[in-house]
């Protein structure tokens, strides 16, 4: 057996409004949607560049609840982009809330965290340096040992 694709599938409390937000915030385009007679969206596929995110309205009668319904989300979606600062600003302007401003991180990305109006958490980052897994682990250990929010690096790639 071969897994061919993996898709994020979000449940939201107002899929039509979420589709509009994802268009404005991330430039997503709609592939298609399935709507039940009452108007609830049972399935929609959105193109995020070359990647697809699926979503639906909540269907509590089937145990399908939104992040708002449960009061949290244990999942974050990471968008690897060309300009994290610009996309984070765009997502906030479209109605998201900034949880962490764009910051240079120990793992070689500049990244931000935005919570969308539907309770989902988006990590938005772009590469600022190539970091080996060993160096990343060293920096991670140093960061946790020092209690620092980020490990800054000097020109040699070592913590300063």
Descriptive account of the structure:
This protein has a single domain (8-146), classed as 2,3-Dihydroxybiphenyl 1,2-Dioxygenase, domain 1, CATH 3.10.180.10. The chain has a four-stranded mixed beta sheet with strand order 1-4-3-2, with helices on one face. With 160 residues, it is an alpha/beta fold. The chain has helices at 15-26, 67-70, 84-93, 133-146, and strands at 8-12, 29-35, 41-48, 51-57, 76-80, 97-104, 109-115, 121-127. The model is unreliable at 149-160 (pLDDT under 50). Helices cover 25% and strands 34% of the residues. Helix 1 runs antiparallel to helix 3 (84-93).
Topology of helices and strands:
Layout: E1 8-12, H1 15-26, E2 29-35, E3 41-48, E4 51-57, H2 67-70, E5 76-80, H3 84-93, E6 97-104, E7 109-115, E8 121-127, H4 133-146
Parallel strand pairs: 1-4, 5-8
Antiparallel strand pairs: 2-3, 3-4, 6-7, 7-8
Helix pairs in contact: 1-3
Strand residues, percent = 25-35%
Query: CATH H level: which superfamily?
Result: 2,3-Dihydroxybiphenyl 1,2-Dioxygenase, domain 1
General shape: elongated
Order of helices and strands: EHEEEHEHEEEH
Largest sheet, strands/sense/barrel: 4 strands, mixed
CATH level 1 name: Alpha Beta
Which architecture name does CATH use? Roll
CATH topology: 2,3-Dihydroxybiphenyl 1,2-Dioxygenase, domain 1
| Poorly predicted parts | 149-160
Count of discrete structural domains: 1
Report, as a whole number of angstroms, the end-to-end distance: 47 Å
Helices and strands: which structural class? alpha/beta
Count all strands and give the number. 8
* Tally of separate helices: 4
Q: How would you write the strand order of the largest sheet?
A: 1-4-3-2
Average pLDDT reading: 91
């Amino acid at each position: 057996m071969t897994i061919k694709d993996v898709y994020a599938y979000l449940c939201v409390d107002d899929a039509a409004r979420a589709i509009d937000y994802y268009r404005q915030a991330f430039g997503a385009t709609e592939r298609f949607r399935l709507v039940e007679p009452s108007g609830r969206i049972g399935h929609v596929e959105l193109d995020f560049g070359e990647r697809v995110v699926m979503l639906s309205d909540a269907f509590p009668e089937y145990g399908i609840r939104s992040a708002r319904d449960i009061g949290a989300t244990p999942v974050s979606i990471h968008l690897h982009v060309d300009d994290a600062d610009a996309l984070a600003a765009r997502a906030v302007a479209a109605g998201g809330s900034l949880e962490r401003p764009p910051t240079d991180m120990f793992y070689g990305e500049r990244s931000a965290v935005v919570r969308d109006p539907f309770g989902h958490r988006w990590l938005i980052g772009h590469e600022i340096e190539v970091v080996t897994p060993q160096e990343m682990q060293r920096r991670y250990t140093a960061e946790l040992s020092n209690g620092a929010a980020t490990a800054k690096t000097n020109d040699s790639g070592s913590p300063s």
